[in-house]
Design goal:
This protein has 15 helices and 20 strands. It is of the alpha/beta class. It folds into two domains: 237 residues, Aldehyde Dehydrogenase, Chain A, domain 1, CATH 3.40.605; 179 residues, Aldehyde Dehydrogenase, Chain A, domain 2 (3-Layer(aba) Sandwich), CATH 3.40.309.10. The strands form five sheets. A seven-stranded mixed sheet has the order 14-15-16-13-12-17-18, with helices on both faces. Helix 6 links the parallel strand 8 and strand 9. Helix 2 packs antiparallel against helix 4, helix 2 crosses helix 6 and helix 3 packs across helix 4. Bound molecules: nicotinamide-adenine-dinucleotide (NAD). The site of nicotinamide-adenine-dinucleotide has 30 residues, from helix 7 and helix 8. Nicotinamide-adenine-dinucleotide binds next to helix 7 and helix 8.
């Protein structure tokens, strides 16, 4: 029996089956999670559908107040949540606390927003107003890299807008999401949010379900395409936050010693498992050797260990499949470039990979073309900045990117040519709940965060009133 429960129709229930959740730092079984079958998925969707009329009729301020209570309840148990997050995801405890901070901040931010009608035209003859209606049942599907933050980022706007939710975490990190479910069961009316866990087998049934009105999905581009196909027959609303291959372009006027730690932090965030981590680095030939050396020196100093151990700076990769994938990247990187730091898995239990810097690598190497999602950074040399921009843009992805220079005007001019949903200058990864986030090209469709992100969970409706008598 699992200590964890699914949340269906306001009740915490065992799964039809169970699945083992592995601690990536030890490879031991951390816990058994409940696993839903198709019948439980049907129950969850039916409960969300049944809860929709009353929840959507609840005043938005009341819905916001309940969300604020959820944020308070998460904060009250933040330490416990963070520890569990480290155990199931692998990130160091301080990073897990930070993820909890960010998740709580997301919920609090959305709890205060409003969806006021907008008067588009008003004259003597007519009044035309645009209103925002909730959509119905929202399916919220999350990946394993930042499970609590991404859950919060989806359920808070969906619920505030008056929708009900069926949430499904990734099978390798379900526990923190189920814990959020325990709090939801105490705070939100039955059926308003339902949480099921699968073993990568229920996603299609959920996204294609006729009673689901919208899918909000964060995960890989390959799965995102399957999700898009699955919603075609019912023309569901869809938000996709997908993979990235963010490039950082370093102009020739930087101080190598000052910029290198910032670049490395951008690349190794979450052990490289960030959709918006720096995944390719373009450095001018005049500073190439110096920056490579500095990156190598810093990478070798990073303390890798179990995230629960004090002093750990980088934890393991989250799961075995990703560990094997990253080891393949290491092998191909050693053939197509020169590894100057790291390059190996640690000879111990756990999915640990040394922070790795690869120099003298070609643009067509696998490590440059594909999303590595691990702590391996390829450093590419350029001589002409327009050529660097063209190479940075030569990808199907377009999530984030950054430009680094001591001349802000010059950096801004380069940034203007980067094709991505976000481009940073002299930083990477800076995110805020009120700032919209989205992917260009195959990195996504639609927007999360900010007022715009909230409105994605609504249908706009025009009410056009003639002032003449009927
Ligand atoms: P994934 O696509 O394998 O899985 C994501 C989720 O989709 C999981 O919950 C999984 O169970 C579910 N799923 C699997 N098959 C499905 C199907 N056919 N239909 C519906 N759902 C299905 O992704 P992952 O490996 O868990 O996460 C890593 C990826 O996520 C990376 O590519 C990363 O860049 C991306 N990501 C993007 C963002 C963003 O905001 N753009 C944020 C975080 C992660």
């Amino acid at each position: 029996m699992s200590d964890y429960k699914l949340l269906i129709g306001g009740r915490l229930v065992p799964g039809a089956m169970t699945l083992n959740v592995i601690n990536p730092a030890t490879e031991g079984v951390l816990a058994m999670a409940p696993r839903a079958d198709c019948a439980q998925l049907e129950e969850a969707v039916a409960a969300a559908k049944a809860a929709f009329p009353a929840w959507s009729a609840t005043p938005i301020r009341e819905r916001g107040a309940l969300l604020a209570r959820l944020a308070d309840a998460m904060e009250a148990r933040q330490g416990e949540f963070a520890r569990l997050l480290t155990e199931e995801q692998g990130k160091p405890l301080a990073a897990a606390m930070h993820e909890m901070d960010a998740a709580i901040a997301r919920i609090r931010y959305f709890a205060t927003l409003d969806l006021l009608p907008r008067v588009l035209r008003e004259d003597a003859t007519r009044r035309i107003v645009q209103e925002r209606m909730p959509l119905g049942v929202v399916a919220a599907i999350t990946p394993w890299n930042v499970p609590v933050l991404l859950l919060a980022q989806k359920i808070a706007p969906a619920l505030l807008a008056g929708n009900t939710v069926v949430a499904k975490p990734a099978p390798t990190t379900p526990l923190t999401t189920l814990k959020v479910g325990e709090l939801c069961a105490q705070i939100l009316p039955p059926g308003v949010i339902n949480i099921i866990v699968d073993q990568n087998d229920l996603g299609g049934a959920l996204t294609s379900h006729p009673d689901v009105a919208k899918v909000t999905f964060t995960g890989s581009t390959a799965t995102g395409k399957k999700v898009m196909e699955s919603v075609v027959s019912t023309l569901k609303r869809l938000t996709l936050e997908l993979g990235g291959n963010d490039a950082a372009i370093v102009l020739d006027d930087v101080d190598p010693k000052e910029v290198a730690p910032k670049l490395l932090a951008g690349a190794l965030f979450n052990c490289g498992q960030g959709c918006i981590a720096i995944k390719r680095l373009y450095v001018h030939e005049s500073q190439y050797d110096e920056i490579c050396d500095e990156l190598g020196r810093l990478a070798r100093k990073i303390i890798i260990d179990d995230g629960l151990k004090q002093g750990t700076q980088m934890g393991p990769l989250q799961n075995k499949a990703q560990f094997e994938k990253v080891k393949d990247f290491l092998k191909s990187a050693s053939e197509s470039g020169k590894i100057i730091a790291g390059g190996n898995a640690l000879p111990r239990k756990g999915y640990f990979i040394q922070p790795t810097i690869v120099r003298d690598i070609d643009d067509d190497a696998r490590l440059v073309k594909e999303e590595q999602f691990g702590p391996i950074l390829p450093v590419l040399r350029y001589s002409d900045v327009d050529d660097a921009i063209a190479r940075a843009n030569d990808t199907d992805y377009g999530l984030g990117g950054s430009v680094w220079s001591n001349d802000l005007a010059r950096a801004a001019a380069v940034a203007a040519k980067v094709v991505s949903g976000t481009v940073w200058i002299n930083q990477h990864l800076d995110m805020h709940p009120d700032i919209p986030f989205r992917g260009a090209k195959q990195s996504g469709i639609g927007t999360e965060q900010g007022q715009e992100g909230l409105e994605e969970y609504t249908q706009a409706r025009i009410v056009n009133m003639a002032k003449a008598r009927a």
